[in-house]
Each structure stands twice: as structure tokens, then as C-alpha cells.
Amino acid sequence: MVKRKDVMIDVGEAVGIVAAQSIGEPGTQMTMRTFHYAGVAEQVPTGLPRLIEIVDARREPKKPLMNIYLAKAFRDEEKAKAVAEAIEEVSLRKIAHVVEDFEKKEVYVRLDPQLMGYEGMGIGDVMAIIKKSEIGKAEQQGENVIMLKPKAGSLKAIRRSTEKLRDLHLKGVKGLSKALVTRDEKGEIFIRTAGSNVSEILKLKEVDPARVYTNNIKEVDAVFGIEAARNAIVFEANQVLEMQKLDVDRRHLNVLADAMCMDGQVKSVGRHGLSGQKASILARAAFEETIKHLINAAIKGEEDRLVGVTENIIVGQYIPVGTGIVKLAMQRKK
């Protein structure tokens, strides 16, 4: 027989409902503000917007960022700065002014020699990358000007070519718009980036692969697997709540993360995720798109076994939670 002290929680306890209440209620008290990470000149959403991002399992957070710790040989400030400069993405818009000439149907790239020198690039390097991109026919005009003739002559095609040119990747790691050297609470040097690209960062010998972190949960799932993504959901949600000085037991967050990741992929808590994919037809219909769910179930001849909470409330039965879970009662001998 199991003794009371041996069990962590009573059989039939509605842990999901308690977890939902425990996260949802403080969530309504959250501010809509953003948080400025020192050094990275971007506002990182915290509070309600970030919590919504997490439970919605967004493909990419509004402001992705990474913390990159370095291998032992690169942990002094000068070497870390060199690594930060090397990984920061340089696109053409950073070192050039791109303008269109709709009359001649040409695009002109006017390079800034000072910025090119700062990034350690010459016009030959830029020219080679533009030619390789095959956006159009490029030729040098003057000392720091490149003229590009787009393949198609329509005004729409010229505008599209201009945007492609501005975003053209020249050097660094794609997606990392800023990289700054900073120190953690223990005083250890690390690089914080605006933007995220874990798979490329892990290829660098200067990086400690065991201590690369991104706030992009979908990317964590793709690179490190579902268990890591589950831990990231708990960590990120806990961080948001702690930043708002809201005290929520971490076990409630564990229940949420487990529910989101139990099928081997990160699912959102919404109509396309957990709530829209429940086994019960009535539970799905009670959440959203009632008629659609009922019609689809009728067409397929689906059956509702009434094992959950929502569907039993709808039909007016005892819910299988707490004392409602007991199917048999026996009278003990006196």
C-alpha cells in the first residue's frame, strides 16, 4: 500500500487546471513593457508579450538574442572582441547607399570607403559577392560605385533587386545584427548578440558549444532536440515571471512545458496546437470553431469517450477529477 507521505500529489488532482490558473492569474497582472538589455541596442520583450510568444510557440521571437560563451583560449577581452567583430553580420546596407534609377532601369551601389575599411573589405570583395548573388549584371563605375542592371526591366523587379541588394550578406554569421562583449554575474566574459543562428555559431572553434543559449525555442528544438526545447520553455517562462516579481511555482511551468512538448514537437496552446488537437470532439468544439469540429466529427463518425473535464461538464456528468475519479465504493466491516 502506498503511504500518504510517499506520493507527491493526490491521485486525481487537477494539476492542469491548477497550473493554468497559477500561470494565467499572475499573467493578467503583467505589464506590457519591454526590457533593454545593456549593450545590445534592441528592446527585448518581457512581460505579457513574451509570455504570449512562448505559449504560442512562435517560429521566431520578436527580438531573438543569443548568449555565447567562449572556449578557454578566447576568454580575455581582446580576443572576445575580435570574435564578436568576426561573427557580427555585415550586409550591404551597412557599408553602402543603394539607390534606384527608374528612368535608366539601373541600381547604383555607392560604397562608403571609411565603413568598408572598418569592416576590412574592398570594392573587389563586394563586387565578387554581388556577381555571385546573380541579382543582375554588375559593373564598377568610378572608385566606389557599382552599377547593377536587374535581369527584368519592370519597376517592380528593380525595387525587388534593390531590397535584395540592401540585405545582401557580405560577412559574419547570418542573422546576428549586433554582437557585444559583456560579463555575467560571476564576471565571466561572454558575447550577447541581437539575432540568433545557433547552428552556424556551433561550427566555430572559438565557441564553447556546451554554453550557447538562444531565446528562440523553435531553434533550440531544431538544433538540440525536444528535451532541450522543453527546458527552454520552463527557463524562459520562469525568467519572464521573475522579472515581473511574480512568484509562480516552477512545477506549474513544468506541467505547461510537458503538455506543449509531449508529442515530440513544440505545440502552441491554441486552436492549431493543444486546444485544437484534443482527443475529445466536445472539448475542441467548446474552445473555438464549434460548427467546424462537430461537422468534421460527424462526417468521420468519431466517438467521444468523455474522459476529460470539459466534455463531462458539457453533458452534465461528474468530472473525472478528485472524488469524481472514484468508480467503486466499498463499505468496510465494522
Descriptive report:
The chain is of the alpha+beta class and 334 residues long. The model has no long low-confidence stretch (mean pLDDT 87). 40% of the residues lie in helices and 18% in strands. The chain contains 14 helices and 12 strands. The chain has 4 domains: 11-52 and 225-261, no CATH class; 65-88 and 175-214, Alpha-Beta Plaits (2-Layer Sandwich); 90-171, Gyrase A, domain 2 (2-Layer Sandwich); 279-325, Orthogonal Bundle (DNA polymerase, domain 1), CATH 1.10.150. The chain starts with 14 loop residues before the first helix and ends in a 19-residue tail after the last helix. It has a 4-stranded antiparallel sheet. Strands 5-6-8-7 form a 4-stranded antiparallel sheet.
